[in-house]
């Protein structure tokens, strides 16, 4: 092994990381749900320096396959944080989460990289959940997508002078959901964020405080309140011009009584349902409208967050 910590030699890990939906309507930059839809990656330490990257599925032929790859940068971020020299790496990514769709693909890449790094460093350094959330938030910019990808379930994330923190909650069994992703439209989070105003009216802030408090109750205890609890005045209207088909579909779904919101920064639509039959009805509404082709993902909530499996070291003498 040329350079690097000899204890890392031959180490290899496999990571599975869930998609996520952030904001959930009123919970801008705060609430997120982990979705049972997973990107997988395998990372092996190799003797030669540098990184090789193989991407299968979503992003193949599009995302960088050198050291600028987001997963590689996330692994490097954790090593740098701990002052450990980054070894040579072979990375294979198998992706299903669509990119630029509001289903947490960049959070999955960041969390996947950090979990891989933690797995590779097992027994060498200890990294707890708060530290993972801090590192992930440094890379993503806000904690609401990375928290559910890391910890699973419904997460409330907030920032403190000491760094971001989270509370994980278990979603009521009666809640079922779907995510409708437009087949050929993407919106970058940077564009969506550029449409946000510097400040908002006080009454709009109060509106969202009440709805997001109600949304926690709806998601963990009273799913029948989901429709009232998913109203928002802090982000969706400001961003509507960047995703007109998304806004039109949400308007249509809400007019028919479904708790539809923008998933993350869009353009996917998240529909939170109080029973599986309602979810089938929502899917039928989406199929009926013909302006934009949507792929409907009927998903369960992921309860575990990202998981890592370490493989026995394969050291060639
Ligand atoms: N809270 C973030 C936003 C989620 O809406 O900008 C997207 O990463």
From TrEMBL:
Extent of the signal sequence: none
Gene3D superfamilies per UniProt: 3.30.230.10, GHMP kinase, C-terminal domain
PROSITE patterns: GHMP_KINASES_ATP
Subcellular location: Cytoplasm
GO CC terms: cytoplasm
UniProt keyword list: Amino-acid biosynthesis, ATP-binding, Cytoplasm, Kinase, Nucleotide-binding, Threonine biosynthesis, Transferase
An example Gene Ontology molecular-function term: homoserine kinase activity
Domain GHMP kinase N-terminal: start-end pairs: 69-153
Transmembrane segments: none
UniProt record, GO biological process: threonine biosynthetic process
EC number of the protein: 2.7.1.39
Keyword Nucleotide-binding tagged: yes
Organism superkingdom: Bacteria
Swiss-Prot/TrEMBL catalytic activity: L-homoserine + ATP = O-phospho-L-homoserine + ADP + H(+)
Chief localisation class: cytoplasm
The keyword ATP-binding appears for this protein: yes
Span of domain GHMP kinase C-terminal: 227-284
Binding site for ATP: 98-108
Pathway in which this enzyme or protein is active: Amino-acid biosynthesis; L-threonine biosynthesis; L-threonine from L-aspartate: step 4/5
HAMAP family documented for this protein: Homoser_kinase (MF_00384)
Primary role: Catalyzes the ATP-dependent phosphorylation of L-homoserine to L-homoserine phosphate.
Annotated PANTHER family: HOMOSERINE KINASE, HOMOSERINE/4-DIPHOSPHOCYTIDYL-2-C-METHYL-D-ERYTHRITOL KINASE
Similarity-based family: Belongs to the GHMP kinase family. Homoserine kinase subfamily.
Protein name: Homoserine kinase
